[in-house]
Design a protein that fits this description.
- The structure is a single chain.
- This protein is α+β, with helices and mostly antiparallel strands and 142 residues long.
- It is globular and about 35 Å long.
């Protein structure tokens, strides 16, 4: 199960989907809807990159975790000046987000980290409490 961020934000939406290709589109569409509901304009400079980051993380779960994880969970949270989201699955492998292995050219995680850092955000991998899954949390300023 996806653990909440260290500092909970007041707005929250949780989406759990089967770990299959359609999850990418549904996670992205849900992000667009919740951001609009929370008053974040679609043209805000962080929204496009956030949607790309989200799509990449859900795609990674679909491609690499589906054999061990029937579902992928996306947690969307927001508060004053902050949008955060997590993509979690029940595959125990916890990828490295930083360093040569994680950020080699052409890797999806390299794109995630590069975009996140360019926006002044943070990216963190958190293991599930039972050690049988993980989530990747992205926090971006708005």
């Amino acid at each position: 199960m996806v653990r909440p961020a260290d500092a909970p934000l007041p707005l929250r939406h949780v989406l759990t989907l089967p770990t299959e290709g359609a999850a990418v589109r549904l996670a992205r569409e849900t992000a667009e809807l919740v951001l609009a509901e929370w008053g974040v304009p679609r043209r805000h400079p962080s929204v496009g990159p956030a949607l790309l980051i989200l799509s990449e993380l859900v795609t990674n779960s679909v491609r690499h975790a589906a054999a061990l994880s029937e579902t992928v969970t996306v947690v969307y949270t927001a508060g004053r000046g902050t949008f955060a989201f997590a993509v979690g699955d029940r595959h125990p492998y916890q990828p490295s987000l930083y360093g040569t292995h994680a950020t080699g050219q052409g890797t999806g995680l390299a794109t995630v980290v590069e975009l996140t850092l360019s926006l002044g955000g943070t990216a963190v991998v958190r293991g599930d409490r039972d050690g049988r899954g993980k989530s990747i949390w992205i926090t971006l300023p708005l």
